[in-house]
Amino acid sequence: MYTPTAAGAVAPKKITVPELRNRKAAQGQARIAMITAYDFTMARLVEEGGAEMVLVGDSLGMVVQGQANTLPVTMDDMVYHCRAVARGLARAHLVGDLPFLSYQASPEKALESAGRLMKEGFCESVKLEGGAEYAPHVKLLVRAGIPVVGHIGLTPQSVHALGGFKMQGRGDEAGKRLLADALALEEAGAFCIVLEAVPPDVAAAITEALTIPTVGIGAGVHCDGQVLVCTDLLGMGRGHSPKFVKHFANVADVAVAAFQSYVDEVRSGAFPAAEHAFKANRPAAPTSEVQGVSAPDSSKRYVA
Ligand code: KIV
């Protein structure tokens, strides 16, 4: 797992796109675990937890910014959060979301935006929402050396067109359209496809038809991997969660309890205790010498 660096230190081996492209569960490969992250601290924890793919999703519009949907997220927002997450990852593959209207207008616009996520955000691939109509965009990015993750089913950037955050691909025709979209994205060069909120049998059929892995969210167990939003997974939210979310912890309650303890101890004076204070960097002076001494130079007075 570890390879030496030029300086002789060991660095974890990066998970590569060719490795991920071959992760098909039906061929006996372990399923891919993808988790979102939006900052350095969470990225480090997610990687320590073993996730192979970390997604800086435009879900940050809702989770970090408190917006009603992902539409207001800008390229500058994405670059900012991708840079922070990239600093926290040594091994996991970093995917950055192309936000609303950063790619839809043309393949060239997509290339310009994806290029920013790679050059300025240090992403290793980009994700875009949409089916066969975006095959030309995917082709151009792939030709430029930018690995692409597709995203079909419930595509949150189309929330208004879809009439809400609703399950997609219900019924034979809709299921067939999703399959055609998935095949078109694969043919265009995508190395992985996220399936969001689609019936498990549709996800299973798509997963079987593709040679690239599917990563599901609300798409059942037959996908080649799963993705969850980190704050959902940790149980950090206070509102309603979609049916497909599982809280693997209840961090919201743990955090609130910690904040309450802090507030109580600050009020009572129990915090900070002696062990939380710096030591004086000088011999203790007899009381008589201290009397009348004005405030010392704080840089000399304290040790780290
Ligand atoms: O933006 C996001 O976090 C996503 C995942 C839910 C797949 O697109």
Give a quick set of tags describing it.
304 residues; alpha/beta; TIM Barrel; 2 domains; eight-stranded parallel β-barrel; two-stranded antiparallel sheet; binds 3-methyl-2-oxobutanoic acid
Gist?
The chain is 38% helix and 14% strand. It has helices at 17-21, 40-48, 60-63, 75-87, 107-119, 135-143, 159-162, 172-188, 200-209, 230-233, 251-268, 287-290, 298-301; strands at 2-4, 10-12, 32-36, 53-56, 93-97, 125-129, 148-153, 192-196, 214-217, 225-228.
Folded structure, characterized:
- The chain is an alpha/beta fold and 304 residues long.
- It is built from 13 helices and ten strands.
- It has helices spanning 17-21, 40-48, 60-63, 75-87, 107-119, 135-143, 159-162, 172-188, 200-209, 230-233, 251-268, 287-290, 298-301, and strands spanning 2-4, 10-12, 32-36, 53-56, 93-97, 125-129, 148-153, 192-196, 214-217, 225-228.
- The protein has an eight-stranded parallel barrel with strand order 3-4-5-6-7-8-9-10, surrounded by six helices. Strands 1-2 form a two-stranded antiparallel ribbon.
- The protein is globular.
- Residues 288-304 have low confidence and may be disordered.
- Residues 36, 55, 57-59, 97, 151, 194, 196, 217, 227, 229 line the site of 3-methyl-2-oxobutanoic acid.
